[in-house]
Amino acid sequence: MSYLPPFPSAHREAALAALAEFLPRAGRDYAEQRNHDLGPSDRTNVSLLSPWIRLRQLTEWETVAAVLREHDAKSAGKFIDEVCWRTYWKGWLQQRPSMWTDYRADVARLQAEQAGSEAVQAAMTGATGIDCFDAWARELVETGYLHNHARMWVASIWIHTLALPWELGADWFLRHLLDGDPASNTLSWRWVAGLHTAGKTYLATRSNIRRYTGERFEVTVDLAKTPVELERSPPPPVQPLQEWPAASAGGRTGILLTDEDVSAAAWLAAEAAPAAVAGFFPAEAYEELGTANHVVRFRREAMRSALGKSADSGLFESVDRLADWMKTVRIEVLLVAEPPVGLWTELMPRIRELCGQLDVQLCLKRHGWDDLLWPHATHGFFRFKKAIPRAMARLGEW
Ligand SMILES: Cc1cc2nc3c(=O)[nH]c(=O)nc-3n(C[C@H](O)[C@H](O)[C@H](O)COP(=O)(O)OP(=O)(O)OC[C@H]3O[C@@H](n4cnc5c(N)ncnc54)[C@H](O)[C@@H]3O)c2cc1C
CATH second-level architecture of 106-212? Predict the structure, then answer.
């Protein structure tokens, strides 16, 4: 199935082909050139891997291992750091889950109050009159991708020049980005707004945009020179990560894949040989969020591809269908890769309840990569970064 350019398909084969194609450029070339947004027709200076990495159609550990087979650790350092930013954001949110639920409540309130406002509509349809912003707004909706620097500029202009609520901008991104990820997206928007790190706000400037876009834009409108001052309440206290008990040995085991980690069938099988594998696609949660069709299609396709040929019978979108499957294959233990805070936050309690009703032991597991790195995501990235070499030393195990 072909997809929106530049993403040919959600399948693992497409992800592996994109990784192989990018590998020669993942060293010094990436470190030196990645900040340039050369436009949709030239993305050779970045990897474009995020839609697959987001779903773990390509895992962080295999991506980093592949890069280290072609480049020494120093040359690949910048790329590895970027891959680990995702882990950092996920670990950070996992230890402050209320930040996600508060943000979703704020989005709902703001949508009721302002989503129909002319200024919000003009921004989301690329009709602000700010040439670069309008081009990126259209690119986001048409391709499901924006370069990292463009995401920073768009978020900055949205918040500081157009003075729109950051939550509505974050929601707009989350609904359209193929790699839309609750942690990376919400916390990056908060960072641009000056809410993540005290005293740090990101302000887009005309000269920076012109320089890093190869002067593709005029930027004739004045951009904000001072940031909007948002009230920064202290982040919720760190909530320790859950420790998951081992499954009781001997029960008939089923693995349930989620779209948060489609690689999990492989690594969960090391816990207990499964009698059956199925997937659950949270179609209802995506619909509630108002997720764009291209995102939903990409993710469903990624799950089908991860499940293989039997996918049609084993990919469920309702808790009732999942219940039927668990009864039919007589599951006693259900193994699931712990979903990060986000769309699964509300769904997981329903699956737990179902397991309780069917007398099935629900057993959550965290991959070693997350288990090692997430506990270090308590402060800033630079403190977290010190733990990365420990993960690099264990790549051979995963
Ligand atoms: C306001 C804003 C919103 C964002 N929203 C998302 C989002 O919803 N989902 C998402 O995956 N990324 C998000 N990012 C991070 C980043 O922009 C994208 O991951 C990156 O642009 C993806 O393109 P790429 O694969 O070509 O990246 P590359 O530059 O090739 O980076 C390689 C990989 O590293 C990871 N990565 C790189 N930069 C970051 C970062 N800053 N944070 C987390 N991971 C990173 C991605 O997995 C990416 O595939 C956001 C950044 C900003 C500023």
Answer: Orthogonal Bundle (1.10)
CA-closest residue to ligand 1 atom 6: 185
Q: Enter the pTM of the model.
A: 0.97
Q: How many CB atoms lie within 10 A of CB 3?
A: 19
Ligand 1 touching residue 136 (CB < 6 A): no
CA 44 to chain centre: 21
Q: Is the peptide bond before 6 cis (omega within 30 degrees of 0)?
A: yes
Domain 12-93+374-397 maps to which CATH number in 1.10.357.140, 1.10.20.140, 1.25.40.80, 1.10.150.120? 1.25.40.80
State phi, psi for 269 to the nearest 5 degrees: -65, -20
Q: Per-residue pLDDT tens for 115-163?
A: 679 999 999 999 999 999 999 999 999 999 999 999 999 999 999 999 9
Contact 90, 398 (CB under 8 A): no
Nearest CA residue ID for atom 30, ligand 1: 47
Tokens 């930040």 belong to 99
Which superfamily, per CATH, for 253-365? HUPs (3.40.50.620)
Token pair for 172: 């707009």
Choice from 46, 82, 149 to test ligand 1 binding pocket (greatest atom count within 8 A of CB): 82
